[in-house]
Design goal:
Layout (H helix, E strand, L loop, with lengths): L4 E3 L9 H9 L2 E3 L7 H10 L1 H11 L7
Length: 66
């Protein structure tokens, strides 16, 4: 059984930490992909390109968010 109810269909990329904390206190959590907007995806992809490429070569892309 999951500890939190995963919330889907919402954009939490601009949510303040206090909002996420309050959701968790209520037993809810955003789905991980909803924490990223296009700008942040581009930054993470660029910064962690080598790590992402290594992950893809070892495990494929099925479990990647973007």
């Amino acid at each position: 059984m999951d500890r939190f109810v995963r919330l889907t269909g919402h954009d939490y990329s601009d949510a303040l930490p206090a909002e996420i904390r309050d959701l968790k206190a209520a037993g809810k959590t955003p789905e991980p992909a909803s924490l990223y907007d296009d700008e942040l995806i581009a930054i993470v992809t660029k910064r962690y390109k080598k790590d992402i490429d290594l992950y893809k070569s070892l495990f494929g892309t099925d479990n990647l968010m973007f």
